[in-house]
Amino acid sequence: MNKRDYDAIIIGSGLGGLACGATLAKTGKKVLVLEQHDLIGGCATCFKRKGMLIDAGLHEMDWGSEKTDMKHIVFKKLGLFEKITLVPLPSAWTVRVLDSKLESSGKEAKSPSDTDSKTQDFLIPHKSTKEALISYFPHEKKGLEKYFKKLHFQARLNYKFPFDMGFLEFFFAPLHTLSFLTLSALRQRKVGNMLDILIKDSKLKKILNINMAYYHYDAWKFNWNFHAIAQANYYHQGMYIKGGSQSLSNALADIIKENGGEVRAKCEVKEILLDDKKAIGVAFVDSTNSESKAKGEQKLFAEKIVANCDPRIVYEELLHTDTSKDYKAMQNFSAKTSLLSVYMVFDTNLSQKFLDMDYSTFCVDKEYFDKPFDRDNEDMLAQDIEKRGFVFVNYSKIDSGLSDREDRYFGVITTLSSYEEWENLSKEEYRAKKEHARKAFEARLEAFFPGIMAHCIHSEFATPKTIERYTRAKKGTPYGWDQDLEGFFARSAFKSKSVTNLYFASAFGFPGSGFTGALLSGYRTARKMLDPYFYPRRLSLCVLFGVAVSVLVIEGIGLVLG
Q1: Structural domain boundaries enclosing 553
Q2: For the whole model, what pTM was predicted?
Q3: Most buried in the list 84, 196, 295, 392, measured by CB within 10 Å?
Q4: Is the confidence at residue 104, as pLDDT, over 70?
Q5: What is the domain count for the chain?
């Protein structure tokens, strides 16, 4: 039997892996995190350009109340509030609609509210979101009241994991939570269908679904549960992390290291070592220096192995055994939702130059905005790449901490894409397509904010293939499996069915994707690793408690009647 070097070795340093490692380390477990890239964090990283930091992934993080957002619990337990600074965003976002016909005719714009203007803005505030939308669409008041009621109800159901509930809270969970969650999972409602039921106005439905790129590409495949929880929390408050998403990754890594663990970059795992069907360690190549690299593969052993990477990598590349039980389950999932981004550096503070520019502005053409909200128009990947609506994030609106210079400001264009749109191209074709698309989006940004490109001193274009190259996620999906279905069966299991002591913690797992989903997935996996008998023990106590209460009630009734 090989000696054990660690209690847990985690493959990958995305937020799921780091949250899992931090949770384990806080309980005294000896943890090692191995990351193949030279930056830790997966999609939660920052890289340098033109003397400032560029945030690779984070635009904003949904931040609900303690009654609807379990990140409060996770952040408190890990001590993250003491390590990062959350910067409140000024609004949820603004939706800007451009009449390209007026724009192309050269007609001078007046105020955004004028019908003759090239643009029309819909400012979506935090907390008073419902009231603002009713003011824009007074004829939809009843529908909006129902919509927000359903958002809050769905978010309230998902406020806490069972192992964070008190005993009585857990005992009564079947009444106040579990039955409703079961019903929701059985119904499997889709965003398109729900908006059709609640809202009549197509423009309002488009606004309510404006940030679908954060979750999915098709409103009629996107599950209502994921939409409702995130939107409820976004509308309550959006946050940015000062210093960028790298600050969050570094904070989690610091928690691991402060509690006796290690986080190593440039260490690529080549194989998960097995003893029969039991994971016992990893073989990896350390590229931190030439001497280590010359040694070739090194081996380390642990009681448990956690994969923070794409589970397809684990089963197709890292395991040399029969994993058909696990692999068959993945055949039911799709992973098509990805992104393209134009990272841009400006030499002026955009918030001072463009006084009406929000932190997040969703830019759509009037031609699309006037179309019906239906299956034909709400599959974004069916639209031409260069005509898709996009979000422009203006980081100069807040104290982002990304630059110490007064002449460097960051902005980014982001919209949906898929790997299939960029594969099967030669290097020359790929570069040409990227360059053409970059220029097209820059021209569209100029149309929405005339004069902005005169201040852009650097821009670079990232596709799903870029995401795949840096994160290794197959087909460059930062979101894991598409969020078509809700429930445990709709995501990868937290534990392998074929190999014992092999766990998973990433956006591919439950509860879902995005920064929030990955963090919660890592935390949940760690809690299940630490207390595998929580459910049978707690259920046994509930049965005993229920029997005892029943006996006392019956005896009390007997005494009264006797």
Answers
A1: 535-562
A2: 0.93
A3: 392
A4: no
A5: 4
